[in-house]
Amino acid sequence: MLTFETVNELTLKVTCKGTDTLFTKAGAFICGENAGYKNYKFEKVLLGPQQNMGQALLGSLVRRVTGENLPLMKVMMEGDSVTYYANHSQHVVVYQLQQGETISIESENILAFTSDCKYDVRFIGCGVISQKGLATSTLTGMGPNAYVAILTDGNPIVLSNIQSGSTLAVDPDAVVCWMGSGHCDPDIKMDVNWKTFIGQSSGESYSFEWGAHQPVSVIIQPSERMSGVSVSMDGGRTGYRPN
Q1: Mean pLDDT of the chain
Q2: Which of 40, 125, 169, 172 has the fewest other C-beta atoms within 10 Å?
Q3: CA-to-CA dists, residue 213 to 29, 101, 122, 184, angstroms
Q4: Domain limits at 74?
Q5: How far apart are CA 152 and CA 174, in angstroms?
Q6: Has residue 87 been placed in a domain?
Q7: Helix then strand then coil, % of the chain, to nearest 5
Q8: 61-68 LR contacts (CB < 8 Å, sep 24+)
């Protein structure tokens, strides 16, 4: 059995009791400890985390075509251990999925997940302007130990309309992920005319929106991806941190 927790906001601590398997971003391991000889080992995931070879091959092809490619490493644990994972000093958020709950997340924001999560890639039908692609990675809780570790640039904020029934509007370039029953895909709202188009690179002319009929929780990072379109009179967006 695995449990996830964060250390100093920037590191994922994974505690294993017994035998289990963990999937992480390739190269994310930083250290670990256990009694006796080291009882965990690493294996590169060539196709995908799916158990079925056909599904793994198809998933690998879809990820490469859609840009949701996810270089994964499988950590096979054969006994009690504690291991730690991080990625370029990004902040780490831990989330436990309920049975049947799905998180839709950018592949670049996945640090690790347990084998009780079903991984997939699906199209959401947007992304012409935003760097938020035409596809998104999804993880669905399939058991009681469905943990996901999420990467964000800076301390994130969380918006939820599950209790309030409010409308949520988010810049697609700042969205990290959203969680809810089913897919809960956002509506794409655009306000483009000749005035707003001149400043389109700022991102405020389009947004992801979830209404009261779409109960969802959204994690947003205080850092925006560079948009796919840059048409402006002021030289485009400034202040972003390049990859």
Answers
A1: 79
A2: 125
A3: 40, 17, 22, 10
A4: 2-155
A5: 10
A6: yes
A7: 10, 45, 45
A8: 62/121, 62/135, 63/107, 63/121, 63/137, 66/121, 66/123, 66/133, 66/134, 66/135, 67/133, 67/134, 67/135, 68/106, 68/107, 68/121, 68/133, 68/135, 68/136, 68/137
In this prediction the pTM is 0.79
User: Distance between CA atoms of 118 and 96, rounded to whole angstroms?
Assistant: 13
Q: Which two tokens stand for residue 146?
A: 């469905």
Residue 187 lies in a domain: no
DSSP 3: E
Q: Which CATH number does the domain housing residue 56 bear?
A: 3.60.160.10
In a domain, 101, yes or no: yes
Closest CA to 215 of 167, 169, 162: 162
pLDDT (tens digit, 9 = 90+) per residue, 1-10? 999 999 999 9
**Encoded tokens for 58:** 């198809």
The token pair at 202 is 């700022």
pLDDT band of residue 193 (cuts 50, 70, 90) is: low
Say how many domains are in the chain: 1
Give the closest residue to 162 by CA, choosing from 210, 223, 94: 210
Please state the φ and ψ torsions of residue 139, each to the nearest 5 degrees.
Answer: -130, 125
